[in-house]
Amino acid sequence: MKKYFMYLNILTLAAILCLTVGCQDKSELEKFKQAETLKATNLELAKKFYTFLDAANLDSLRTICNTGAIIFYQSGEPVSLNDMEPFIKIFYTSSPDYKHNIDDMFAVDDKVVARITYTGTFKNKFMDINPTGAQFKYKGIQIFQFAENKVSNFWAVEDELGMMTQLGMELKPAKGKK
Amino acid sequence: MKNYFKYLSFISLIAMLFLSIACQDKSELEKFQKQQGLQEQNKEIAKEVFAAIDKNDFDKLKVLLADNFVLKSPGLVEPIKRDPLFEIIKVHFTSFPDWTHKAENVLAEGNKVSLMTFEKGTHKAVYEGIAPTGKIAEMIGFHIFTIENGKVVEWWALNDDLVFMTQLGMELKPVKSKK
């Protein structure tokens, strides 16, 4: 009888131990799985961003960006989406088929990194540059940061020099320099 | 006695069930933890690349960059291999001997690492035909590394070259511009 009680106690303790360890691991595993779910959600949001942007659909674009979203474009000062909207209109008026082609994209925590090839046809005036009808292609890397399923910060560096070269510009010494 | 056996069997089954679930979860958890460990390692490798470049430590770079390494960047006609990259670095540091890369926002997922670099240096010697200005030029860079077995196999680099060249006294003008 005593042996049976002893085995009973050992097995009960073993069951409790397995339950405790299992719960801890499960809790940590759940965290990883939640992070994977968040990444998948953010990747889809980033794709939606490009779909809206390439349709020059600023109304829809605003719905997936926080009102206080900050954009860090090239080496410039941070700007808001409102500040960028006139430039977006200029780009898509100049090249109605302007498109962000995703070459590579991955998510980390609350961020998404995208390597992009921009393509389009230079159909209408861009700033002071007359259209050439030429097709252009240049590269960029963009990083999104999401909060509550909306873009909260956005960074972009692109080959602006390459783009302007394809639009018929070249680098020369500034006035007064040889 | 019969009740004790019943209770014993029940507890045994429960224990085995929890054990098998715990083992499955542990196995899956270990995969995630291993991946996380690898990603942290890759982040350090990416930072070490820029630290080695700033020191012109080509021996270290040979360890960090795989034999089949390639650099891809706009403006390059074709991807650059490791040894030609070393020559490019040497040329850059001849013009900007104090050039530094400050790495920030380092992100790792799978075998990829992305990071931003805030770069600057003093223009002390001719650079791409531009006479030294003595000015400090700054540039931002975005980079994506692909790392396999502890070595960088591919490096995508994007820099704000236009702003950089503007700081060296250049500006954009229409091709065949009329005065």
Summarize the SSE layout with pairings.
The complex is a heterodimer of chains A (178) and B (179).
Chain A: H1 2-54, H2 58-63, E1 65-73, E2 79-80, H3 81-94, E3 99-108, E4 111-121, E5 135-147, E6 150-158, H4 160-166, E7 169-173
Parallel strand pairs in A: 1-6
Antiparallel strand pairs in A: 1-2, 3-4, 4-5, 5-6
Chain B: H1 2-54, H2 58-64, E1 65-72, E2 80-81, H3 82-95, E3 100-109, E4 112-122, E5 136-148, E6 151-159, H4 161-167, E7 170-174
Parallel strand pairs in B: 1-6
Antiparallel strand pairs in B: 1-2, 3-4, 4-5, 5-6
Task: Looking at this protein, list some descriptive labels.
heterodimer, A: 178 residues, alpha+beta, six-stranded mixed beta sheet, 4 helices, 7 strands, B: 179 residues
Q: What can you tell me about this protein's structure?
A:
The complex is a heterodimer of chains A (178) and B (179). Chain A has 178 residues and is of the alpha+beta class. Chain A is built from 4 helices and 7 strands, in the order ααββαββββαβ. Chain A has helices at 2-54, 58-63, 81-94, 160-166; strands spanning 65-73, 79-80, 99-108, 111-121, 135-147, 150-158, 169-173. A 6-stranded mixed beta sheet of chain A has the order 2-1-6-5-4-3. The N and C termini of chain A lie far apart (104 Å). Chain B is α+β, with helices and mostly antiparallel strands. Chain B has helices spanning 2-54, 58-64, 82-95, 161-167; strands spanning 65-72, 80-81, 100-109, 112-122, 136-148, 151-159, 170-174. A 6-stranded mixed beta sheet of chain B has the order 2-1-6-5-4-3. In chain B, α1 packs antiparallel against α2. The model of chain B has no long low-confidence stretch (mean pLDDT 92). Classes of the chains: A alpha+beta (178), B alpha+beta (179). Chains A and B meet through α1, β3, β4, β5 and β6 of A and α1, β3, β4, β5 and β6 of B. β7 of chain A pairs antiparallel with β7 of chain B, so a sheet runs across the interface.
